[in-house]
Amino acid sequence: MIYLVYQDRSRYVAYHALQALIFQSIIWLGGCILTLVTWTITGILSAVLVGLICIPFAMLISAIPLAGIVYGIVGGIQCNQGQDFCYWMVGDWVRGTLTGD
Question: Domain limits of the chain?
Answer without folding.
Answer: 12-82
